[in-house]
Amino acid sequence: MYSIYQIIDLLLGVLWFFVIAHVIMSWLINFQVLNIRQPLVYQVWNGIQRIIQPIYAPIRNLIRKFLPNMGAIDITPLIVILIIASVRIVLKNNVEMFY
Hints:
Blueprint: H1 2-30, H2 39-66, H3 76-93
């Protein structure tokens, strides 16, 4: 059963990496350090978008319901990072249940 905990923790770590990579790439694209017209950059960006968007979509819908329009500020990655960190803390504190 401990291996289930390790697999869940690994998947949460990979998701954490993709969210951070998405945030950094979006900054670099917006500041025109990276150009999406380059094939490699486009493939990496498109791959990360396909992985992250199904996670962001429900959270963005909830944000639209409860918060006013904030313009170009997107707090969805911050919320996803907080959710991942919270789940990892809860799993770590209840790891005895996996033994």
